[in-house]
Write a structure and sequence with these properties.
It is built from 12 helices and 2 strands; from the N terminus they run ααααααββαααααα. The protein is mainly α. The protein has a single domain, classed as Hypothetical protein af1432, CATH 1.10.3210. This is HDIG domain-containing protein.
Length: 207
Amino acid sequence: MSVEKELFAAIDHHLLQDKRPSAYLKEVSDLPEFKNYPFNMLLDLKETEQEPAHHPEGNVWNHTMLVIDEAAERKDRSNNPKAFMWAALLHDIGKPAATELRNGKLTAYNHDKIGEKLSKKFLLSVDAPETFAEQVSTLVRFHMHILYVVKDMPFGDIKGLKNHTDIHEIALLGLCDRLGRTDADLKKEEENIALFLSKLANKERIS
């Protein structure tokens, strides 16, 4: 087994077994092999800053570590905990490529679409089954739809969301994403998830 496959297997174990998988990820991120492809894509998260108004926790790595710990607490509510946890780890893998300064603010437009492709490449490069890579990358692709639907933004693909993934998995991932910040309000974010599901149900009744 290659070093990359061994590291993938170890991360997989800790994502599914640890109460706080961030502790292990932070430890192994300092190892030389973490600089190898595809894990260097995760290292890039440490160098990618975010707009402080939305992410007071700092860079994308800090955010991702908070998200995987939130996901670990809720993975038993997922229909596919393995795909769910890997989606939590890789959900913002598109941000390094997408992040830029616009009008004095850091933005990461289309990081969800970029992340869909990169997360699939990541998993296939360590010989993960293609079906599994597709499950994870689809969750990554649609993880921003909580915001798009709740705020009636024009970036959504509601038909694709309903046809290609489980909206309840997206809702659970979206909740963990929203809670992965230092100033998160659990009650408010749970209300946003309920609103997301309600709006989708209303759209389905209307259509």
